[in-house]
Amino acid sequence: MGAVEAPEKTAIELKVEGMTCASCVARVERSLKEIPGVEGVTVNLITERAYARIDPQLVDLSLLEKAVAEAGYEAHPVEEGTKDDLEAKEEANWRRDLLVGALFTLPLLGVAMGPLRGEVWDWVQLVLALPVLYAGRRFYRGALGEIRKRNLGMNTLVSLGSGAAYAYSLLALFVPSLFPEGTRHLYFEAGAVILTLILTGKYMESRAKRRTREALEKLVALTPKMAHLVKGQETVDVPAESLIPGDHVWVRPGEAIPADGTIVQGESHVDESLFTGESLPQRKASGATVWGGTVNQEGALLIQVEKVGRETVLAQMVRFVEEAQSHKPRVQEVADRIAAVFVPIVLTVAALTFILWMVYGPDPRLSFAFVAAVSVMVIACPCAMGLATPAAIAVATGRAAQMGLLFRDGQALETLARADTFAFDKTGTLTEGKPQVTDIRPAPGSGEEEILALAAGAESFSEHPLARAILQKAREAKVQVPMLSDFRSHQGRGIEGRLKGKRVLVGSARFLQEEGISLQALAGEETSLMTQGKTLVYVALEEEALGLLAVADPVKKEAFDLVHRLRNSGKRVVLLTGDRWVTARSVAHDLGIEEVRAEVLPHEKAEEVQRLQQEGRTVVFVGDGVNDAPALAQAHVGMAMGTGTDIAAEAGDVVLLSGKLESIPLALELSRKTLGTIYGNFFWAYAYNILLIPVAAGVLYPFVGLLLNPMYAAFAMSISSLFVLGNSLRLRGVPLAS
Fold it and tell me: Is 0.70 topped by the overall pTM?
């Protein structure tokens, strides 16, 4: 009897709504893992996705949705075609709730703070407050889930703060006799402001997630929609998504390659900058591997398809970025853990306060007990705690924008201060990203101007990056470029033409040697230039080699100072590049970088970052291209050059808008000062609560007859929030190191 095969697992992706903190992620993961037949559960807070593998014979979608619902959240299945709709729906829902909250909170503040008094205006406040309560319903729903799971978080804090204000106000409005003289006040506006501020933050967060999703989809869109499939003796156009491994497709010059595969026929140069960051197209011939999304530049290629859809390198890159973006700032994790302890403590203190006043307090005991208990909950409202991190981050990011820095989230502001390792991409990050002519070496009897003029004349009608570099050099040198005739392109090798009847050859050493031209006169010049990783272009007239031009991607001037400063401050510096080893070593030598990894693919860059992390290092990765996106997402902090692509900027935690490396030391200094401010905010936020909760409970009443009115409790709560805001605003005036 043969062995029974294990049932094949199905990959499932769910959209989970309502998660706000790390404890939410843990609850959702735990709920799904408890279901028999479910394995490999991972939950991403940033993208609000849950991934799992299920046994379809034991588990269906409704079971997963029910488990998530019991944890206090909403789940919906995600399919490729519905991702846009779900993200748009989420953003629209938060925008709607925010508009409702703001629309009713503003007039509510006007009535509550203005000179209008009387019972009619009290009822007006209630009418204005109820829609805001509805707008914040998701926080209360989340709080109920947290309470059911006995794992309290920020939803509970928000619901407690706003709910206490609403409950007290409703009782004061409907049962005023419960309250001692002078204690009947309404606090609808306090609850409404709490909810509206939190809604503002959630809306901004949903917009950021939407932008991230759109950037990833732009990356996927680089793969062509149609492919030229070979069927027998014919070539037919079919949707690229219908290709399967083993198919043969033609890719014409200028077209993007539709899938990963191997070249069966033809040769060309392929632009792989999407993956390697290498600014020069790579020569490809029969047997070479090519990737979907790269661009064929010259000859037609016949490709055998190897990988399609989710298996391609491009799709894996997108998936890697999505899955690696769920990092949680450590300082916020600490806040969540404190909140989980703080809320039960506050509730316990409020309950004890109520009991003690009912037993030992003066008449009317119920009124005094209720006032004291509500004062405890109002004064313990978590506004200051909730503002501690975002207030500092908001001010710091505004200050950073003035310096050409864009922080995507608070994680970078915390982690940068602890970073001890900096890994850099090469092309476009440490180098200019554009090939330039760096050297012109004439053979004996020839001149630099003659060599440059002939090379520019031969390359006049070429769009190759090397040609553009030569023409740019000719323009800068103001060289008279001659008009050549009888052009002939030798694919992947060089160009020939005629000037006044004489044959001009421009191209590789191999090309000129195949044409019978000796390069012996240039032998001494070649070696030193090639060891620097430069590309050599030779020029010959008739049968004589006139000289050569060296083309390279020059190192940015500010890169020298940056690497020097980082190393002097004890940071470890690593170069990670998809470029050739000879070029990478040359750049590293010039900059004084000792650790180099070259010829690495995008996912291998991310693996190198992960290897450094496994050594206990806090890693910052700096890059500018799409090929850097996985490493940017994997690093503790990803820094994307503002001159790079959308996807690189979206994968980075920090974007250098100016594209200048000197912004990095500024980011480090700002990070250190911001982290100090955040910790200071938390200290004062909790100090206010710890000191004033006993006062609100009535500790001073037996000695000085002071029972804190909830109105003053709300005022004290506001003072703590104002202090946190004021402390954060100090970052605007912090001098930054240059």
Answer: no
